[in-house]
Amino acid sequence: MTDTFEKAPIVEQADQDAPIDQTTVNDQTASEPLPNELWLSRTIATLRGAVGEDAIQESYINKADSNRPCIIVPPNHWPAVASLLRDHEEFGLNYLRSVAGIDCETHMEIVYYLISLETQDEVCVKVKTDRDLPSIPSITHVWPTANWNEREIYDLFGIDFPGHPDLRRILMPDDWVGHPMRKDYEPLDSEV
Questions:
Q1: Which of 4, 7, 42, 108 could make a disulfide contact with 134, Cβ separation 3.0–4.6 Å?
Q2: With contact defined as beta carbons under 8 Å apart, do 154 and 174 qualify?
Q3: CA–CA dist 179, 169 (Å, integer)
Q4: H-helix or E-strand spanning residue 26
Q5: Spatial distance between the Cα atoms of 93 and 95, rounded to a whole number of angstroms
Q6: Rounded to 5 degrees, what angle do the CA atoms 123, 127, 133 make?
Q7: CATH class belonging to 10-138
Q8: Which positions ≥6 away from 60 have C-beta within 8 Å?
Q9: Is 40 exposed, middle or buried (0-12, 13-18, 19+ CB in 10 A)?
């Protein structure tokens, strides 16, 4: 049986801290697929078939990160994609390893690292949102461990998570003004 899936682009990221739009795609065509390339192609096909063609904005294999597959999902499709990644028999990504917020100056981004405890398959999912009114649907109903991560990201970056069961500050005092991890944050106290 041969796979007829479209090959995912190969990405080499020059700077680990660079936002996703500063990555470069390697134009070399490999005779053999990279590790995880066929998995990523099947995943994209399944997600687009189940959720819609626009469920995946971009995908690539990040060679600098152990050939980790990465997909970029629009916020409106993230809850459906998250549920499929966890529940679909082909994926079974049942463990949310980590969640991080990133201020990319032009937009805000949430990065999720998911893993299957049975197969050890893993994927990086990025969800981009507007900088001025950042909002990404909560996935605490899919992975309850996202609860405190989403609260921390809300507290430090100001990203709203509609559907979160208890979205309030977790690190900063309740009366703190602003979100200190944003690049446009200006402390009110000049000594800070």
A1: 108
A2: no
A3: 10
A4: strand 24-26
A5: 6
A6: 165
A7: alpha beta
A8: 8, 9, 10, 11, 23, 25, 69, 70
A9: buried
Match 């000594």 to its residue by tokens: 191
Count of alpha carbons within 13 Å of 20, Cβ hemisphere only? 23
- The H or E element that residue 78 is part of is helix 78-87
Strands (E) across 50-182 are located at: 58-62, 68-73, 95-103, 108-115, 122-129
Q: Where are the domains positioned within the chain?
A: 10-138
CA-angle at 27, arms to 23 and 32, nearest 5°: 110
Query: Residue 131 — left, alpha, or beta (φ > 0 → left; ψ -120 to 50 → alpha)?
Result: alpha
Q: What is the mean pLDDT of each run of 10 residues along the chain (192 residues)?
A: 45 47 44 87 97 97 94 98 97 97 97 97 98 97 98 98 97 94 85 57
Are 87 and 142 in contact by the 8 Å Cβ rule? The answer is no
The model carries a pTM of: 0.82
